[in-house]
Specification:
8 helices; single chain; mainly alpha; 58% helix
Length: 168
């Protein structure tokens, strides 16, 4: 396969012609269950969206990055916080619990030169901010975005379209 030039225009249509939920209707049930599980209020919704935005950035998904940026804007997050998610480690805009959650998603999604991705030290740090139920919820939030990464990268829904209608 020939590489695309970096200056080539990107079409505003999904790569997969049909909505995956039409092809596999069970996807809607899985999506709804994951949303309910992460919406149990043990982790602030803004933290979940920050983590999921960072996941979209890490995997290079414009769709997920635009989606979670939109969720954060609708929730009233500042442009400074949204814009600095990519460089959160050097940003003054995040509290220690959010920083731990962002470090966790990076550890899960990025290879480690030192072996284990989620070290005992990172786990201990995250556990200082989240009890067992909240840590499980945060884990599910990372899994939730992880579940949709292949759809975002393979099917390529159109960025900026409604979450429920990216194929319209």
């Amino acid at each position: 396969m020939e590489a695309r030039s970096i200056t080539a225009e990107i079409p505003l249509r999904p790569r997969l012609a049909q909505d995956p939920q039409e092809l596999v209707p069970e996807l809607a049930e899985v999506s709804a269950a994951l949303f309910r599980a992460t919406g149990n209020r043990t982790v602030p919704r803004s933290t979940i969206s920050l983590v999921q935005l960072r996941a979209g950035q890490i995997v290079g998904s414009t769709y997920l990055t635009v989606l979670h940026t939109g969720f954060l804007r609708k929730a009233g997050e500042s442009e400074e916080r949204i814009a600095s998610v990519a460089a959160w480690a050097d940003s003054p805009y995040f509290n220690s619990a959010e920083r731990a959650a962002l470090a966790l998603v990076e550890a899960v999604l990025q290879p480690s030169a030192h072996g284990e991705r989620v070290s005992d030290e990172l786990y201990a740090e995250v556990s200082e901010h989240y009890d067992d139920k909240a840590l499980t919820t945060l884990t599910l939030a990372i899994g939730q975005v992880g579940f949709f990464i292949p759809i975002a990268l393979i099917a390529k829904p159109v960025p900026g379209r409604a979450f429920t209608d990216p194929w319209a």
